[in-house]
Amino acid sequence: MARLDVQQKLEILADAAKYDASCASSGSTKRTSKGGKGIGSTTGAGICHAYTPDGRCISLLKILLTNSCVFDCHYCINRKSSNVRRARFTASEVVDLTLAFYKRNYIEGLFLSSGIIQSSNYTMEQLVEVARQLREVHDFRGYIHLKTIPDADPDLVHQAGLYADRVSINVELPTTSGLARLAPEKSAERIDGAMAKMKSDIIDTKDARKKYRHAPRFAPGGQSTQMIVGADSANDSDIIVRARGLYHDHALKRVYYSAFSPIPDASSVLPLKRPPLMREHRLYQSDWLMRYYGFEAGEIVSATDPVTGMLPLDIDPKLAWALGHRDVFPVDINRAPKAMLLRIPGLGVRAVSGIIASRKWRSLRLADVARLTVSIAKIRPFIVTPDWRPTLLTDRADLRGLVEPKAEQFELFAA
Hints:
Strand content: 5-15%
Protein name: Putative DNA modification/repair radical SAM protein
Organism: Flavisphingopyxis soli
Strand order of the largest sheet: 3-4-5-6-7-8
Cofactor: [4Fe-4S] cluster
Helix content: 25-40%
Number of helices: 15
Largest sheet: 6 strands, parallel
Pfam family, one: Radical_SAM
InterPro entries: Aldolase_TIM, DNA_rSAM_put, Endo/Exo/Phosphatase_dom_1, rSAM, rSAM_sf, RuvA_2-like
Number of strands: 10
Radius of gyration: 24 Å
């Protein structure tokens, strides 16, 4: 077989990395190369690709170390039995690529994952070596996100956390039975164990830094994971409950959802069609409700179809929950606590903060609420103000048709 050059490897391994959605850079530590020392930073501007905690867009070089793998997971295009073109970077090649891309202002960080080659420990060693060279040899101060290998030695995974801003390990599938069926070489118990160890190391390091100023940082951006949606029989209720458990048990920063995409030469146990992309979107919305709106997993599950366990695709989860719990509405905008305001369809976190701040000084009317929101029409059936009361509107049988978004045909050549 002809030897591949770096450009050819990059084309293959960048394309192979596109299936991993968990590459956001939120939670990074502020580092800079001001003063003439070091290379890179996590504070500059770049090509929009991922987002920092303050909302800035930065770009990441997102690649696999190799797309060869000793595992044969049915859903993975890089599985052992897959007929794809293989490539492999050396650790030094990844380091050189990262530095070259950064110096040309193409990127501000690195997202590095890999198939498993030879053994879990060997693969983890290669990933750690990339991060070590960048940090210790080249004093790279940009963002680094490493995917860890679940069966790797805990000491190797710990080293990854010392060099990377964020580490992650994919749970792959929402249910233990699904993982056993589609990825028999992987163990849900070992994955959970690795995530629990990472959580413990993060907590221990934070405690150490409170006592000792020069204690090393450890994965300051925390850990994240990804679940594949639609490859197995898990419904949205299963996924929501699993995500909530991961947040609670392992203090994850993010759970990412990736809609299953049919792959070439697919196994017969996989579905022939991909799930609707809107399903992935609704799961992200439900995730947002748990993380920022105070919803419990059980509340969101109550908005799913009782037969299929699926969230509705035509309306968002918060509206679905509100339509199923009309007994708690309408809500008095001027008296309701923050937790209840966040449950009103159409009100976001920023709008609720504005309402709470404004009502300290005056009683808010419907026009005041309209100025803080995008669409007052969606909110009106669920609120009470001094000049507005929905009377029987909240109890109408056709309320869903009044508040659900209307289908709109976009014009290709519209001004």
